[in-house]
Specification:
This protein is of the alpha/beta class. The chain has helices spanning 15-27, 63-82, 100-118, 154-160, 182-195, 242-246, 291-299, 351-362, 411-427, 446-453, and strands spanning 2-5, 8-11, 33-37, 52-54, 93-97, 121-124, 148-151, 170-174, 177-179, 199-202, 204-211, 214-222, 225-230, 234-236, 256-266, 278-281, 315-318, 326-330, 377-385, 392-395, 401-405.
Amino acid sequence: MTRRTADVIICGAGIAGISTAHQLAVGHGLRRILLVDERPPLTLTSDKSTECYRNWWPGPGPGMVNLMNRSIDMLEGWALEAGNPFQLNRRGYLFATADAQQAATYLRLGQEISGLGAGPLRVYRGEPGDADYQPAPAEGFTGQPDGADLLFDQALIRRHFPYLSEECIAVLHARRCGWFSAQQLGQLLLMQARHAGVELIEGRVESVELNDAGVRGVTVATGGGTLEIASPQLVIAAGPKLAEVTRLLGIDLPVFCELHSKVAMADPLGAIPRQAPLLIWSDPQAIPWTPDERAQLAADPETSWLTQPLPPGVHSRPDGPDSSPIVLMLWTYHTQPVEPVFPPPHDRQLYPEVALRGLSTMIPGLRRYFDHLPRPVVDGGYYVKTQENRPLITPLPVEGAFVIGALSGFGLMASPAAGELLAAHVMGAELPAFASWFHLDRYQDPHYQQLLEAWGDSGQL
């Protein structure tokens, strides 16, 4: 048995764990940090992401908008310092609808989110000032507006987004949004962290040793045997294994997992332009099957649900450089809690066609693939969630133990500021004003309990 000591042990080398290590080492100058994971960095769920970011989040409260604004500030700063190796863009998120009630919701929700600090809402109704609308460039992020543009003028929609369905009556273009390369960002932060003294250990945390004062250390199973690490501080950044690891401390966190899949598919016909933003259809819909297909699906209890209306939120974006034909497609229509298993049991047969057909309601050009679906690649992972879909970035009831998790589908975009916040907790540094929104103690707050009872939009796509 080998013995080591450390000032901080971080369990999990996904983007959340790496960001925390980076903040502790580079931001606070802490040196004896051990980053422990049984897999190579960023390979459990961080590399399965859609790699998008946004500051466009509903309430209650400004917590999510403030967290994401801080994250985006950090992303932009790193991109400017390093020459943008992780290819940050600001193409935006484009929410589209064919429903008048949803269009009215865009206005109401847009005013709310704008008031929370996401930037101004600009509304276009077919008036002379509509010429002020600025389409987003495909690359870069500087000199672009924040907030959102709400287009009610169908002529303006057709001019800038001719590939959308003619049934579309409104689009909301959230602007401080886009995507970047998860691997490139993660490797940049990990390289800087390791240069500042962070050490990566390949192994699995098997147990946590406690004493009357709190955390005393961990036992790690490695390929070479057992490693005992003495440390007074443990950060749990275990992604979908969050609940499993915190139970080593005797703590049951209020979290659960959902399986989420994504499809990568070639679009050689260019139904989705290479310059497009992230495209989201906000309306529930019935999948456009032929009568024979619908009858066959309805007759089988395993597939009859496919003949019923499915929830809103099917979305897509182009992936890779202009020369790439690949688009990503996602649709969250199964949200039941599951126990995480690896590799995840993705539906590689049905899910690609369901996602494609759902997207065809928004982007009719995709219907040309109905009879000849390009070969899809399906991957994804688990979203770890709290009931209201807000993260846990917090000390735990055991002294010296901390958690950064329940980052759901926003782990990549939140991790810069989440890592900074968690590092501040570890170091006893000053906390930002939004910290209380992500503390475990919130569930003991009577006011927060009232918010939970009336919680509306969780912000999930």
